[in-house]
Amino acid sequence: MKNLLKVVFVAAFAMFANSAFAQQKFAHINRGELIQLMPDYKTAGEKLDAYGKELNSNLEEMQVENNKKIEDFQKNSETWSAEKKEVKSQEIVTIQQRLREQQTVAEEQFNRKQEELIMPVIKKATDAINKVAKAGGYIYVFEASTVNYVDETQSTNLLPAVKKELGIN
After folding, report:
1. In whole angstroms, what is the distance from residue 15 CA to residue 100 CA?
2. What is the pTM of this model?
3. Residues in CB range of 38: below 8 A, 6 or more apart
4. Angle, helices 82-136/159-166, rounded to nearest 10 degrees
5. CATH annotation of 23-166
6. CA-to-CA distance for 115 and 157, rounded, in angstroms?
7. Which uninterrupted H or E stretch holds 86?
8. How confident is the model over 116-143, as pLDDT tens digits?
């Protein structure tokens, strides 16, 4: 009798667990694809391009100055005294050091600006995904670009619903 009761209990638990799992809803989305479709992303990209051009312009000006000093040195160094050659040589070394430092600073500034412009877009996408997932009763949303396989018969692609939430055609 005890064994029969155990078997019935295990069978009932298995049926309950199976039906509970079957009712769970899973979804997936490619967040990168979504972000690239967002108008905010395009705007951020345009601002970032303009900022990058500004930074490059400053670097190019320094490079032109460096090239002029090198050209002057190559053209006139034979007529200069040893002291003047040393001074001019040191000027070139100093400009090249400044140029390398400015390149590093420009890269850091560009990366900060990129983060400043892109993070709000990512947050907006994440918030929209969460809102759609919660409203749809999904218990888990997979990032489609990081999984090897998605069975679309058992997982819903949230991209169309999230695009609609964000007003993207």
Report:
1. 68
2. 0.71
3. 121, 124, 125, 166, 168
4. 100
5. 3.30.910.20
6. 28
7. helix 82-136
8. 999 999 999 999 999 999 999 999 999 9
